[in-house]
Amino acid sequence: MRAERHTLAKDLFIQRTLLCRGDTPVGRERQCRAGLAAAPARCACHMEEPMSRLNLAENFNRFFRIAPALSAADQEKVFFIRHDVYARELGFEPVRPDQRETDAYDARAAHCLLRTAEASPRLVGCARVVFADPQDPQALLPFEKACRDSLFRDQIDPSRLPRDRIAEVSRLAVLSDFRRRRGEAHKAVALDVQDFGDAQQPRFPYIPVSLYLAAVLLAQRRQVEYLFTLTEPRLAEHFAKLGVEVTQIGAPIEHRGTRVPSVIRVATVETRLRLMIQPLWKAIDSQMAQQYAQESAS
Fold first, then answer.
1. Which residues are CB-contacts of 164 (< 8 A; sequence separation ≥ 6)?
2. Looking at residue 244, what DSSP letter applies?
3. How far is CA 180 from CA 59, 177, 183, 289, 293, in A?
4. Cα-based distances in Å from 225 to 16, 123, 260, 265
5. Eight-class DSSP state of 197
6. Beta strands in the chain (DSSP E)
7. What Cα–Cα distance (Å) separates residue 122 from each residue in 175, 181, 266?
8. Pairing of strands 246-248, 258-265
9. Greatest CA separation found in the chain?
């Protein structure tokens, strides 16, 4: 275990060194932005690749690999990313000697892991979906505790829903190498209106969107109907651009910044996606399915 922790930390150090030198697609893009290399659109593997050059699925498959974290080794990578972001970088959690950020909810959660599609893949980010505790179905989800007094229970009351049909997406984290814009340094994952560009230069935020869509797929696989989240106030506005309805179900609270409790109806996501997003959904679903199939065959 100690050797594995050392290897992950060493790999992350090398990754950041290469990024600074410009020896990776993202590093070359940073040099591009500083006027040190050719046009950035040719070397970008980050979240702002112009949509007009390739369709979203082709771009995603070209640059990224996303999968459920089914093995112990992949789950260790998830916990490592979370520690690097939430503990070492943001200070939301204590720094731990084992360089892993975990909590009691991980025992009843599913995780996804995003990497680059390079020959030597680099870690990008992760997300998890927390399910009801099968041993204690009435045990609360994290948002139910945090928003106990702020939920609009006349609109939807999680305590009255079938516990095996609800879940919560949380612990989204993206390594700082892939959160390069000004203002993103103090956020575990960022999504902003400028990520979508405009009519003259349309862009797309592959990283946060793919993590959220993968979380929906994790929930869908477990027949979850209501996927709750506690996130930034403008998430609904951003996801409306994709055709995903995120409904606010409570008053804002203070939780590492202003957060609002919201819900996604899992069954409606795929059917309401905008036409341009549907190939991306299928690409993510296909990559996730490949990992499930490999796990079943092993």
1. 131, 132, 134, 137, 223
2. -
3. 19, 6, 9, 30, 34
4. 40, 30, 20, 6
5. B
6. 64-68, 109-116, 123-131, 166-174, 226-231, 246-248, 253-254, 258-265
7. 10, 19, 30
8. antiparallel
9. 58
Instruction: Return all residues near 229 (Cβ < 8 A) that are at least 6 apart.
Output: 143, 168, 169, 170, 235, 246, 261, 262, 263, 264
Query: Both tokens of residue 227?
Result: 């996927």
Query: What letter represents residue 181's amino acid?
Result: R
Type of residue numbered 15: Q
User: Which residues are within 8 A (CB) of 260 and not within 5 positions of it... i.e. 6 or more apart?
Assistant: 230, 231, 232, 233, 235, 248, 250, 251, 252, 253
Burial of 267-285, coded b for 16+ CB within 10 Å and e otherwise, reads eebbeebeebbbbbbebbb
pTM of the model: 0.79
What number of other Cβ atoms are within 10 A of residue 213's Cβ?
A: 26
Amino acid symbol at 81 = I
Q: What is the pLDDT along the chain (298 residues), one digit of tens a residue?
A: 555 555 565 555 444 444 444 444 444 444 333 332 222 333 334 444 444 445 899 999 999 999 999 999 999 999 999 999 999 999 999 999 999 999 999 999 999 999 999 999 999 999 999 999 988 988 999 999 999 999 999 999 999 999 999 999 999 999 998 886 544 445 555 444 454 344 444 468 899 999 999 999 999 999 999 999 998 888 888 889 899 999 999 999 998 889 999 999 999 999 999 999 999 999 999 999 999 999 889 7
